[in-house]
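Subject: mismatched residue count in predicted assembly?

I count 422 residues in my input, but I want to confirm that the predicted structure covers every chain. Input:
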Amino acid sequence: MAKLKSNDIPLSVFENAMQQFDEAASKLNIDADMLEVLKHPRKSLIVKLPIRRDNGKIEVFTGYRVQHSINRGPAKGGVRYHPKVNLDEVMALAAWMTWKCAVVGIPFGGAKGGIACDPTTMSQRELEYLTRRYTSEIMDIIGPERDVPAPDVNTNPQTMAWMMDTFSMHHRQTVTAAVTGKPIEIGGSRGRVEATGRGVMIAAREAARHKDLPFEGATVAVQGFGNVGSMAAKLMHRAGCKIVAVSDVFGAVYNEQGLYIPHLIDYVKENGKIVGFPEAEAISHEELLSMDCDILVPAALENVIREDNAPSIRAKIIAEGANGPITPDADKILNKKGVFIVPDILCNAGGVTVSYFEWVQDRMGYFWEEEEVNHRLETVIVRAFNDVLKMAEEHTVSMRIAAFMLAIKRVMDVTMMRGFYS
Ligand code: GLU
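Triage response: the counts match. Full output below for your records.
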């Protein structure tokens, strides 16, 4: 497989997250000292991970785990493997997890982890050793009641199985609730693999309903074809949308009549990329982003829509499958243009919501049918969408600022209730 192309992530993603926080907080009239309490991550851990590569050499990788908040419950959030992972990015992603869990009303705080590595150049053995060493190095701060990791970019149920096993070996008992996003056979939840994509589909559908735009037949462009992008495309296709364009790190494909997504998924399974898919023509990444379509789903990494390319966006709705795909400057441009944006902390919250269901099921030792998981997920996302919309209309702010306002208020309320231990 070809090497991952590193994305062009400017220095501070955390700065972007802070800007969103400040704008929302200013509408809530919060005391400056309370802002300081809510803003900063409570704990950041950096670990060095020496791994013996298949060629016999030792390579030292750097891993991170940041807990932004535990005020509403155990910290929660994924672990990503990517060459560009750094502390600033993980801090931003951890903060977004706090606000995400609060927006959908699940009893968790926020965390994130990651390892700076290129998993596409590593063997399964190397990935297993890296994952196990990382888990053992962050062991003291994770656990079912402390901080519960999950999959994110370039990690998957197998990664979670290794994490759960490593944690369990050290604790001399099987602790399934220590991580979520596991394979179903070892305490995973039905519906978890599709959950983030399903949440994106539900949120996009609610946005279309709000904008009086028929969802069936709506034209959709999806940027990114990992777990989130592919599942969102599959479920939106199934719901009757016309997925006209899809991209991954290697390129983008287009079909005016709509791509047949099950074929594309099979093609990617075989070829490792979407480039060359015979039922489509090749286009560029920029062409995909500026496509004349109803719904654009950025579902890869941060800062894909920036000040320079935002003016060329023609979609009516943007459903943020990724975390932080739009910079604050681009956000302003798009809001002015009247694009309806369903923000990440609402739009992609389906994953962590079903992670919550998984954690609940593990702790009960009783597992639900997929129908029940999907039904509960639907209820949570639709309710959160309506809560955010109501806030946006009441305060005449964007959906993003409304989502942040709702989340900050919820976290602030429990912080006051719990008081300060000093
Ligand atoms: N990585 C996902 C996210 O960014 C899921 C996190 C989780 O399930 O804890 O929301």
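Residues 76-78, 150, 152, 180-181, 323, 348, 351-352, 355 surround glutamic acid (CB under 6 Å). Marking this ticket as 'not a bug'.
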